[in-house]
């Protein structure tokens, strides 16, 4: 997977159909596919990945020769003694053109380790890009379900207001016919006003959540949204499966392991300074000298040279020793951080799994509580119409129903977000969509 970079990881998402017509709900998978194409943070992450891969070149490691073209033209106006009886002024122009090439034959394998470090840097760039993209997609998922929850809350609030408005209408009719007292009418008005405020607040929350989601999708913040409230859970997930795949695929942990390799290559590069360096130089060119001002290579002479040089620093003020010691310490530090990252990963998987199981249990409980609240409201409503329960009891049943519906929706989306966090830890967040 890492050989082909983040783009290959995202193919499954990008192939999802984008049904963005207003009449069709936007699913989470479609929102992710749209974000992959348009979200600025994701585009930056993919650009940084391309930069890291562009650096993986043998030329950047010094494994290719350097070739340069040099040319000079020098004009001189010199007064000199002439062998004739009168003095003369002579002008001379010296011209040369050369092709020079140099190549490091051996530098203690420093260039070899440098190239390996560059390749490791390419892998590290892909991991960091994937980690950043997954973070954005997780943020997008949270914004998506926050908007879906706000939409449900708005629907619930409106339905509660409809019930209160109907109750107020009935109270006014009863008051007109002298069948209810003032307290009952005032209570109905207070409850209707309270539910009106709840609708306004729910509408405000929905607007804010919608703008946040549209921002992550990089489109106009007021673009209308219709989301799919359906939530399906993966019943095949197990703790052992998540833990095993997290060690093999979680980008945050793999970054720590790759940094250990990077530190090891730095240590090897530092050791290479203790070896002599052999360089090969070659030049080929033309040169000429002409009287007067004459830029050109007429009547030029050809020259060619080659040399092999060896350089071995005997003493560098302990710079090599200090660099090697620091590289060794950096390697040890990276290994300690990798071990810490492994423990953090195990803790994170365990905590998230436990929270996921707890949220599924809460969801089951909330679904049962909702059925109870619906049944209680239905029976209380029938008794209220018959005048056998007070308005207080009816209002309490209504509030319990509204709260149960909200709690069930919150539990459903909470469980889904914990599942998405588990999928990210297992490296399956994108491909699961």
TrEMBL record:
Keywords: Cell outer membrane, Membrane, Transmembrane, Transmembrane beta strand, Transport. This is TolC family protein. It comes from the Bacteria. InterPro entries: OMP_efflux, TolC-like. It is found in: Cell outer membrane. Belongs to the outer membrane factor (OMF) (TC 1.B.17) family. SUPFAM superfamilies: Outer membrane efflux proteins (OEP) (SSF56954). The keyword Glycoprotein does not apply. One of its GO terms (cellular component) is cell outer membrane.
């Amino acid at each position: 997977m890492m050989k082909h970079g983040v783009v290959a990881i995202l193919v499954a998402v990008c192939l999802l159909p984008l049904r963005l017509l207003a009449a069709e709900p936007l699913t989470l998978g479609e929102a992710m596919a749209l974000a992959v194409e348009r979200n600025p943070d994701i585009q930056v992450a993919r650009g940084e990945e391309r930069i890291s891969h562009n650096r993986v070149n043998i030329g950047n490691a010094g494994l290719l020769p350097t070739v340069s073209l040099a040319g000079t033209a020098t004009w001189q106006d010199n007064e000199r003694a002439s062998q004739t009886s009168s003095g003369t002024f002579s002008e001379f122009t010296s011209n040369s053109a050369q092709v020079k090439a140099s190549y490091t034959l051996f530098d203690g394998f420093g260039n070899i380790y440098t190239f390996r470090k560059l390749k490791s840097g390419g892998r590290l760039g892909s991991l960091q890009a994937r980690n950043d993209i997954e973070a954005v997609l997780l943020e997008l998922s949270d914004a998506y379900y926050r908007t879906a929850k706000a939409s449900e809350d708005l629907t619930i609030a409106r339905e509660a207001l409809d019930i209160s408005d109907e109750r107020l209408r009935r109270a006014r009719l009863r008051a007109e016919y002298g069948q209810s007292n003032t307290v009952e009418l005032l209570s109905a008005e207070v409850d209707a006003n309270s539910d009106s405020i709840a609708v306004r607040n729910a509408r405000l929350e929905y607007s804010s959540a919608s703008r946040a989601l549209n921002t992550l999708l990089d489109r106009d913040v007021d673009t209308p949204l219709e989301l799919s409230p359906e939530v399906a859970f993966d019943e095949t997930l197990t703790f052992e499966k998540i833990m095993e795949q997290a060690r093999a695929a979680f980008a945050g942990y793999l970054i720590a392991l790759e940094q250990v390799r990077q530190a090891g290559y730095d240590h090897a590069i530092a050791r290479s300074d203790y070896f002599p360096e052999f360089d090969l130089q070659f030049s080929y060119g033309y040169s000429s000298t002409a009287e007067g001002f004459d830029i050109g290579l007429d009547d030029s002479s050809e020259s060619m040279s080659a040399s092999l040089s060896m350089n071995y620093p005997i003493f560098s003020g302990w710079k090599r020793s200090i660099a090697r010691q620091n590289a060794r310490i950096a390697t040890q530090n990276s290994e300690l951080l990798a071990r810490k990252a492994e423990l953090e990963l195990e803790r994170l998987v365990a905590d998230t799994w436990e929270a996921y199981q707890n949220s599924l249990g809460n969801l089951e409980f909330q679904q049962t509580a909702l059925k109870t609240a619906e049944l209680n409201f239905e029976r209380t409503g029938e008794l209220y119409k018959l005048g056998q329960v007070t308005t207080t009891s009816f209002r309490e049943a209504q509030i319990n129903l509204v709260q149960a519906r909200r709690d069930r929706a919150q539990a459903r989306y909470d469980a889904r977000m914990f599942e998405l966090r588990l999928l990210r830890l297992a490296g399956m967040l994108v491909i699961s969509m």
